[in-house]
Write a structure and sequence with these properties.
Four Helix Bundle (Hemerythrin (Met), subunit A), 0% strand
């Protein structure tokens, strides 16, 4: 067994273990950290497949941005784990059916094998001939030529999802103390300060105090 094969099995075992711990960890913060480990192992497998661009994109985009954001959100929300587990067994049968269906689909796909396209065969032939081939350039050619319409559909779906998330979060709250920026721009000096005329101050009048009787005498 070569070193590449050994590394592939090592990364795959760690990836499967981390993915299993994502759905079985009791603490959501630990689940997010295990998901970060899963992405790292997937990036290493892509690096073994000489897909450097996809590997670095996975680390920079998902681990460096998305998962860090997830981690901060989970830590700030203070999720009540006991409340989340109330309806676990109620929805478990449906989740189990969906999981079995996904496993059968993946098994059928893996058992059927992978078909290599003509473009990939051409790239392999060029690489064997000793000509330098850029994975990033070939990936860009495939995305913007053969897979242009799926890319546009995915971009439209992501745009709709982003707009929907913004629309759901921008709800008016009664206890909100936010100020409308338009009102702040249109404000004038007389709206912020009112001049009140007061009478001039006068010195305080002396207070008359009664005279004290002499000691041992009569007043």
């Amino acid at each position: 067994m070569s070193v590449t094969t050994g590394l592939f099995y090592l990364f795959s075992i760690v990836l499967l273990f981390a993915a299993f711990r994502v759905i079985t960890a009791r603490n959501p913060i630990y689940a997010v950290l295990y998901l970060v480990l899963t992405f790292f192992q997937a990036a290493m497998i892509w690096m073994l497949l000489k897909a450097e661009f996809l590997s670095l994109s996975l680390v920079l985009v998902y681990v460096g941005a998305v998962m860090v954001l997830f981690l901060f959100v989970v830590m700030m929300l203070d999720v009540n784990i006991e409340t989340m587990r109330i309806g676990f067994w109620k929805h478990f049968p449906l989740a189990a059916v969906v999981g079995v269906f996904v496993i059968l689909e993946m098994s059928a796909l893996l058992m059927g094998g992978f078909r290599v396209s003509e473009d990939a065969l051409a790239v392999n032939a060029v690489a064997k001939a000793g000509v330098e081939v850029s994975n990033t350039r070939e990936l860009g050619k495939l995305l913007y030529t053969q897979y242009l319409y799926p890319l546009e559909v995915a971009a439209a779906l992501l745009l709709v999802a982003m707009i929907s998330a913004i629309a759901l979060t921008l709800r008016a709250r009664k206890d909100s103390k936010a100020i409308n920026p338009g009102d702040q721009v249109r404000v004038k000096a007389k709206d912020r300060m009112t001049v009140v005329k007061l009478t001039a101050t006068k010195p305080a009048l002396p207070i008359d105090t009664p005279e004290e009787p002499p000691v041992g005498g009569k007043a």
